[in-house]
User: Which sequence fits this backbone?
């Protein structure tokens, strides 16, 4: 059990690293339609160009780790999510192409700007559909025992996609507040001031819906045994939203991004812990889905080497390219 739990924690850590690091880069792309000047869009792109491709390494790592450590969960979930995952990959590819082509484009600059926005939008919608289906749980064909593949698409999944668009957009705006100055920074303060209330509403709706979608979550959220934990969680979330609102109002540069990071982490922990011990909601636990202990131990050696390297590279890249960005990159 110790090895399986270790890998569960490793995969959870890898996923949240991807969400936080690539979340704001996706958010930057989502904000493109709100910024009209080409020079300001160039600065927005410059803030993420040095780090965006490294951020996606965490996504690849998460998929490989799930495949190796919990093959039963992988083989159950990925056929259900085949379409949204293909949409995610296509969106990330389109975003990557747009990043490079728009640097040299002149007559077609606007086309690549829309491709950057469209690729980011597709990737975020795909992630929202995956989250929505995971929160709602899965149904299986009683005759064959196979999961019904069409359930990746639902009204709640679309709402989760909308909520994630708001969340990533706000995270991207907070990052750009840190990285820009002057009139462009002022625009992002105004954008954040509006998006923060929409995100709060979305979090409330998802939080209310989630327990009702699953008996496991219903028992977890409303059991008196967990009432103190839930109350503390809600107080902290309200406090963090209040901090973010005050930071935006008082024009603090670093606090909005920091408070959103903690909000994302808490929301992620709530989603993960409310479904434990299941990897496939109400169907397959992480112990049922785990690979052989020998395989888990063998992979753990690789993870012990790769994760510190990724963390060092990430920290070094963000340190080197820290500070304000007021000019576009030119090759």
Assistant:
């Amino acid at each position: 059990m110790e090895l399986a739990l270790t890998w569960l924690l490793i995969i959870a850590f890898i996923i949240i690293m991807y969400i936080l690091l690539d979340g704001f880069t996706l958010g930057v792309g989502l904000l493109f339609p709100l910024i009209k000047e080409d020079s300001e869009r160039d600065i927005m792109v410059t803030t993420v160009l040095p780090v965006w491709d490294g951020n996606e390494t965490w996504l690849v790592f998460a998929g490989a780790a799930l495949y190796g450590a919990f093959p039963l969960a992988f083989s159950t979930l990925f056929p259900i999510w085949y379409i949204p995952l293909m949409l995610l990959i296509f969106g990330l590819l389109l975003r990557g192409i747009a990043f490079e082509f728009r640097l040299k484009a002149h007559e077609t600059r606007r086309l690549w700007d829309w491709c950057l926005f469209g690729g980011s939008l597709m990737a975020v919608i795909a992630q929202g559909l995956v989250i929505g289906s995971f929160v709602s749980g899965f149904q299986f064909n009683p005759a064959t025992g196979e999961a019904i593949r069409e359930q990746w698409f639902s009204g709640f999944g679309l709402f989760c996609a909308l909520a994630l668009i708001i969340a990533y957009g706000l995270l991207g705006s907070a990052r750009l507040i840190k990285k820009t100055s002057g009139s462009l920074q002022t625009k992002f303060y105004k954008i954040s001031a509006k998006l923060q209330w929409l995100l709060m509403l979305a979090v409330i709706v998802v939080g209310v819906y989630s327990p009702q979608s699953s008996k496991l979550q219903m028992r977890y959220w409303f059991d008196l045994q967990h009432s103190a934990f839930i109350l503390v969680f809600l107080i902290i979330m309200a406090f963090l939203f209040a901090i973010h609102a005050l930071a935006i109002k008082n024009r603090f540069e670093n606090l909005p991004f920091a408070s959103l990071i903690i909000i994302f982490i808490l929301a992620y922990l709530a989603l993960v812990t409310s479904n434990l011990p299941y990897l496939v909601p109400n169907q397959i636990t992480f112990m049922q889905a785990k690979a052989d202990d020998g395989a888990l131990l063998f992979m753990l050696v690789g993870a012990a080497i790769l994760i510190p390297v990724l963390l060092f590279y990430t920290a070094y890249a963000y340190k080197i390219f820290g500070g304000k960005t007021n000019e576009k990159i030119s090759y």
Summary: The two ends are 52 Å apart (CA to CA).
